[in-house]
Specification:
The protein is mainly α. The protein has helices spanning 4-14, 17-34, 40-49, 55-66. Helix 3 packs antiparallel against helix 4 (55-66).
């Protein structure tokens, strides 16, 4: 009897799992690199740049975020 017959049967049944798992990990990794989350400071800067905050409000909130 050939000892490799058992391994061939196992590989044929579950050999497709490894490439799929690797692809999922690869896609997750790429998505995490391209996704940029805005920090609280970034949001504050955008609101000030868009004119939603006065200079005084901006400075006050920036000081609060720094502490």
């Amino acid at each position: 009897m050939n000892d490799y017959a058992v391994m061939d049967g196992f590989g044929m049944g579950f050999g497709w799992i490894v490439p799929i798992v690797l692809m999922v990990i690869f896609i997750y990794f790429i998505n995490s690199l391209t996704k940029k989350e805005l920090s609280t400071r970034d949001i504050l800067d955008k609101k000030y740049a868009n004119g939603k905050l006065s200079e005084e409000e901006y400075k006050t909130k920036k000081t609060l975020l720094s502490s």
